[in-house]
């Protein structure tokens, strides 16, 4: 447990983010819950442990973490933004039925683009949509 807390503190400090109680809690939630949660999911998961936590604080925290590159913001659907503590290169898959979001491995060859005179690419997002194994099996 102490190792995880120290790891989170170091991750935040490398991005020049002060490791407040709320920031540490949100980061820990994202690392322990690889479900690509929404703001509501994060808030509901932490509010019992931190009764003074507000949705505004969660929103401001994930914005700070995302803007600093500590986490990813995922815009895979029109309803909600999702958040991911894994900032390594990977794709995301969203089930059209249950709305789960799953990490998919990719190679750099699949997503790497060349910068040209006309554009300078600063980030890449690769999304897939379809039916997860559970929903596909249940709907046969």
Protein traits:
5 strands, two-stranded antiparallel sheet, 140 residues, Arc Repressor Mutant, subunit A, 2 domains, alpha+beta, three-stranded mixed β-sheet, globular
How would you characterize this protein structure?
The protein has helices at 2-14, 21-32, 39-46, 55-67, 108-111, 133-138, and strands at 72-74, 82-84, 91-95, 101-104, 127-130. With 140 residues, it is an alpha+beta fold. The chain folds into 2 domains: 2-84, Winged helix-like DNA-binding domain superfamily/Winged helix DNA-binding domain (Arc Repressor Mutant, subunit A); 91-138. The strands form 2 sheets. It has a 3-stranded mixed sheet with strand order 4-3-5, with no helix packed on it. A two-stranded antiparallel ribbon has the order 1-2. The radius of gyration is 17 Å and the shape is globular. The chain starts with a helix and ends with a helix. The relative contact order is 0.13. The model has no long low-confidence stretch (mean pLDDT 90).
- The counted number of beta strands is 5
Low-confidence parts:
none
Number of domains: 2
At the first level of CATH, what is the class of the largest domain? Answer: Mainly Alpha
- Cα distance spanning the termini: 43 Å
CATH fold description of the largest domain = Arc Repressor Mutant, subunit A
The number of distinct helices, counting runs of at least 4 residues, comes to 6
Helix content: 40-55%
Structural class: alpha+beta
CATH level 4 superfamily of the largest domain: Winged helix-like DNA-binding domain superfamily/Winged helix DNA-binding domain
What characteristic shape results from the CA principal axes? globular
- Strand line-up in the sheet with most strands: 4-3-5
Mean pLDDT: 90
Please outline the major beta sheet.
3 strands, mixed
CATH architecture name of the largest domain: Orthogonal Bundle
Compressed to H and E, one letter per element, the order equals: HHHHEEEEHEH
Strand content: 5-15%
CA-atom Rg in angstroms: 17 Å
